[in-house]
Amino acid sequence: MIYAVGIGPGDPDMMPYKTVKLLNSADVIAGFETVLNIARSHFNPSAEVISMGYKDQPQQMEVVGERSRDDKVCVVCFMGDVNFSGYEYLERIHNHSQEPNPTIIPGISSAQMAASRTLTAFETAVFLTFHKRGDITEDKEFLVQILKQGKSAIVIPLPWDFMPAEISQFLIERGIPKETKVDVFEYLTWEEKEKSYARTLETCVEKFSDVSLMVVSPNKTQS
Ligand SMILES: C[S@@+](CC[C@H](N)C(=O)[O-])C[C@H]1O[C@@H](n2cnc3c(N)ncnc32)[C@H](O)[C@@H]1O
């Protein structure tokens, strides 16, 4: 049995109770080291922990699959929510753990936190990720279109090629007014690490962390 769980944006208290109970009792807990560290306080102390990085994900996911076929309860931890910018990782479970139907438990996404911080109603906004493999040209065009329609955009940048400064510059070049409100958040909900930056497209020029998220709000002004 494999569970794919979203462990939330960083604060270990921001996790569904169901996920906490699963982590408390799982035989196997897997994920990226930084993600595991967020959830570690909830781990079953006798669980086998399978930590992975970008390079050894396929091999480590194969091990998770083997454990699952040995009737172990396996929990694979995802950053934030599984359903926002998480499906490339989910594919690793399908392909390498050979489990086509892991049970998904959603988590609180960094996008939900950013929406809360900026008072952005979901129905007035679009979620968009550039943090993906392959060509992002269509996603860039989509971002321009939705901003021109007056929708807000909650955007995951692409480290390090298309970060908030590059996104802002691109949007100005594509005709979005340079006064448009931009908020950048680093490490949302991480104790002592969270930072926020109130900017406009014109003033959004810094180099931000790779754990950052951007909200572009064409219908609001920066206070
Ligand atoms: C592959 S995406 C996964 C997003 C995740 N599934 C979610 O729902 O938040 C990883 C990127 O999300 C953004 N991110 C995740 N957690 C964040 C946080 N606490 N604060 C700011 N950005 C965050 C960063 O841009 C990070 O590089």
Please, could you describe this protein's structure?
With 223 residues, this protein is an alpha/beta fold. It folds into 2 domains: 104 residues, Cobalt-precorrin-4 Transmethylase, domain 1 (3-Layer(aba) Sandwich); 108 residues, Methyltransferase, Cobalt-precorrin-4 Transmethylase, Domain 2 (2-Layer Sandwich). Helix content is 31%, strand content 23%. It has 7 helices and 10 strands. A 5-stranded parallel β-sheet has the order 3-2-4-1-5, with helices on both faces. β8 and β9 form a beta hairpin. α3 crosses α4. The longest helix is centred in the N-terminal third of the chain and has 13 residues. The protein is elongated and about 55 Å long. It starts with a strand and ends in a 6-residue tail after the last strand. The mean pLDDT is 97. S-adenosylmethionine (SAM) binds next to α5, β8 and β10. The site of S-adenosylmethionine has 24 residues, from α5, β8 and β10.
CATH architecture of the largest domain: 2-Layer Sandwich
How big a fraction of the residues is strand?
15-25%
Bound molecules: S-adenosylmethionine
The helix content is 25-40%
Can you tell me the CATH topology of the largest domain? Answer: Methyltransferase, Cobalt-precorrin-4 Transmethylase, Domain 2
Measured on Cα atoms, how large is the radius of gyration?
A: 19 Å
Widest sheet: strand ordering? 3-2-4-1-5
Number of strands: 10
Continuous helix count: 7
Q: Name the shape in a single word.
A: elongated
- The name of the CATH superfamily of the largest domain reads Tetrapyrrole methylase, C-terminal domain
Tell me the series of helices and strands, N- to C-terminal.
EHEHEHEHEHEHEHEEE
The biggest beta sheet reads: 5 strands, parallel
